[in-house]
Protein: LysR substrate-binding domain-containing protein
Amino acid sequence: MPSGTVRLVAPRLAIRTLIAPIIDSLARNYPHVTLDVTTDEQPGDIVRAGFDLAIKLGETIERDMVSVPLMPRFTTAVVGSPGYFEDHLPPITPHDLARHRCIGCHSGPSGSLYRWEFEKDGVAVVMDVTGSLSTDDPDLMLSAALAGTGLWHGVEELARQTIADGRLIRVLADWSPSYPGFHLCYASGVALAPATRAVVDALKANARNA
Structure:
């Protein structure tokens, strides 16, 4: 019976969509395995940091890592509340965002403000946006958008339910690009411990059944 602690690092979205669904079955099937999960929006060198596994975006994986795709490509979205759009005309092109209040996102090791990226018919546009809030917390960003603070830009999956029930309105959908989805990563050339293999198998099985 596998036993021991498995240290895993992943972005919040991956924890919510990929790790949370396996927690109960993992605990029941492998009662002697402890999954130790750390949140990091941009996991770095997992071996140096002492992690056994990481979930990363497909475009950020080092070549010396084993990479297992867990989800397909995801799409970005720009959304605002109905109340916000009562006072502001919806943007038609990314350049219209210069006239809007936008919720800024701190990203990367330096915590710099993320520049909103768009693409349509082979034309790429990158916008520096301004507003009354900037943060690295995606839940706060979404809450602020729901409250009418400004426009939110992020992964569509996070806002899908609020778009479906009308609490947020999506704009610039035809300008929203897609990116490689999440991959499970671990060091190559090293045999996985039984506890780590149990977590890997659970994540792969969940991805197949999603």
